[in-house]
């Protein structure tokens, strides 16, 4: 079993992690359109939700629950007009900021818990990879849905 202690620590520091992630997003030119098109409180709430409920996402949620949640988020970001690359960058930065936090706090250095930490890292990777994939599915679905409902463009050319 992976390190429950680390998961509980992450969950307990969800607000601090979300705030740091927001600072990282604001400092990155790769997320400028995301920040312009999505309210900051919505982004911060999503980050808090991930960090605060990490144990539940890793231990209890099924792949279909991750699919449902992140497909919906992908569709929402597409409808908000967020460029796909900005959207993916935000998910990647969410994961990277978590690693940086754990390393800066010295939480990945105890040899006694190495196996548990490795399993935690493997589960985190799997969760974030699925979140990225299903968010991309939702984004593409929303983009395809909108394209299907647009009026055909007439070029004015005659035969």
Describe the protein's architecture and organization.
The protein has eight helices and no strands. The chain has 159 residues and is mainly α. It has one domain (4-148): Histidine kinase N-terminal domain (Globin-like, Orthogonal Bundle).
The succession of helices and strands, N to C, reads: HHHHHHHH
Distinct helical segment count = 8
Shape: globular
What are the low-pLDDT stretches, counting only 5+ consecutive residues below 50? 152-159
Indicate the radius of gyration in whole angstroms: 18 Å
Distance between the termini: 69 Å
* Beta strand count: 0
What does the secondary structure layout of this molecule look like, with pairings?
Layout: H1 4-12, H2 14-27, H3 32-37, H4 40-52, H5 54-59, H6 63-79, H7 84-104, H8 114-148
Helix pairs in contact: 2-4, 2-7, 6-8, 7-8
């Amino acid at each position: 079993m992976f390190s429950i202690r680390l998961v509980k620590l992450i969950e307990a520091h969800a607000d601090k992690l979300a705030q740091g992630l927001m600072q990282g997003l604001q400092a990155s030119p790769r997320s400028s359109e995301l920040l312009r098109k999505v309210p900051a409180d919505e982004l911060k709430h999503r980050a808090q939700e991930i960090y605060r409920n990490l144990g539940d996402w890793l231990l209890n949620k099924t792949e279909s629950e991750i699919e449902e949640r992140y497909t919906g988020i992908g569709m929402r970001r597409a409808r908000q007009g967020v460029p796909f690359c900005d959207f993916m960058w935000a998910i990647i930065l969410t994961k990277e900021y978590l690693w940086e936090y754990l390393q800066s706090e010295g939480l990945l250095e105890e040899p006694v818990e190495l196996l548990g930490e490795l399993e935690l890292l493997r589960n985190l990777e799997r969760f974030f990879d699925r979140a990225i994939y299903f968010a991309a599915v939702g984004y593409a679905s929303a983009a395809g849905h909108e394209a299907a409902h647009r009026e055909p463009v007439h070029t004015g050319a005659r035969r």
